[in-house]
Amino acid sequence: MSLTGVGPKPSPEWERHVCCAYAGERQWARSAAEFVREGLAAGRRVVYFADTAAPAAVVERLGRNGVDAVAAVERGGLVVRRAEDSYLRRPPFDPDRMARAWEQECATAIREGYAGLYAVGEMAWCARGVPGADRLLEYELRLNREVFARLPLTALCLYDRAVVPEGTTALLTAAHIRRLFPVGRSGARTEPPLGVTPLADRTGFGLRGGADADTRAVLETALAALARLPGPMVHLDLSGADFLDTAAVAALAAAAGAERGRGRRLVLHRPPHSLRRVAAMFPEECGGLEIAP
Questions:
Q1: 250 pLDDT exceeds 70?
Q2: Which of 22, 113, 247, 265 could serve as a FRET partner for 30 with CA atoms 20 to 30 Å apart?
Q3: d(CA 94, CA 87)
C-alpha cells in the first residue's frame, strides 16, 4: 500500500488492526480504495461499512479510484453496508456484541471459500452522539487481544478529519499501534497532548504525554474505558507520561479504589516522578495506588 505507518513494530495480529485519519477524496482513495484492492487481491472477502452513504454510492466511488467494485460485488467478494443497517442497527454500540459479530463475519467468509476477511469501517458516526459512542476507545483497545489474535481479520478504521473533531481523532487513532498516513498528506504528524496506546502483553493501556487541566477530559475518557476492560487485573503503563498533576494522580487513586471495590486490581507501571512526588505529599489519599516493582 502507498501508505506510511508510525508506531513500534507490532506483532502480526496488531499489523492487521490499522487506522487512517484522512482529509478529502484523494487521501481516502490512497487509504480505503487501496486497502480494498489489497484485500480482494489476497483472496479475502472485503466488507465495507459506510457511515451514511448508500452502498451504491460507495461502489461507484471505489470504481472511480481503480477498484473493479461492481464485479467484486457481483461475485460476493465485496460487500458494502451502512453502519446503521448493520452493527449500529440496534443501539447502543456494544464492544462485546461487535466481537461476536466479527466471529460470525469471519466464519461466513471462510465457509464461502475466502481465506479470511478484510473490513473497512468509516468511524464518523462517533461524532454524532450515537448511543454507546463513548465506548469506542474501549473497543479499539480490546480488539487486538480479543479479536485479531483469534480471527483471520484485517481491518482499517477510517476517521474523516472533516467530520470527527481533531481531539477525538487524535485520541482514537493513538489507540492503534499501526497508524497509516496517505502519501502526500500535508502537515506535521503530531501526537495528541495525552494519548492512549494499547499494551501487547496484558490487559490495559499506556498513557503518553501530560495529564493536566488541558487534558482532563481525555484522562476521564481513558479511565472510563479502563473500568470496562475485562479481567481480574488491569495495567496502566505510565512510562510515556511526561507529567501528572495532582488532580490526575487523584483520578488514578479514585480509579484504583473503584477497581478494588469491584474485586480487581489496577497496577501502575513506571510512573513519572510527578506521581511519586504527589503520592509522597498525600500518602493517605494515594495509599491505594499499586505500583509494580
A1: yes
A2: 113
A3: 9
Tell me what the mean pLDDT of segment 69-89 comes to. 95
- Mark 257-281 as b/e (b = at least 16 C-beta within 10 Å): eebeeeebebbbbebbebbeebbee
- Predicted confidence band of residue 14 (pLDDT cuts 50, 70, 90): low
Please compute the mean of the pLDDT values over residues 88-109 and round it to a whole number: 95
Q: Three cell numbers at 214? A: 488541558
> What pLDDT, on the 0 to 100 scale, is given for residue 179?
82
Question: Under 8 Å CB-to-CB from 200, ≥6 apart: which residues?
Answer: 10, 11, 14, 144
- The pLDDT of 194-220, averaged and rounded, is 94
Do 224 and 132 form a contact (C-beta atoms < 8 A)? no
For 102-106, the CB contacts below 8 A with 24+ separation are: 102/147, 102/151, 102/153, 103/151, 105/47, 105/153, 106/151, 106/152, 106/153
Q: Is the pLDDT of residue 34 over 80?
A: yes
CA angle 106, 107, 109 (to 5 degrees): 65
Helix (H, G, I), strand (E, B) or coil at 169: helix
DSSP state of 1: -
Domains and CATH numbers, the chain: 3-182 (3.40.50.300), 194-291 (3.30.750.24)
**What does the pLDDT read at residue 185?**
45
- Region 185-211: mean pLDDT is 82
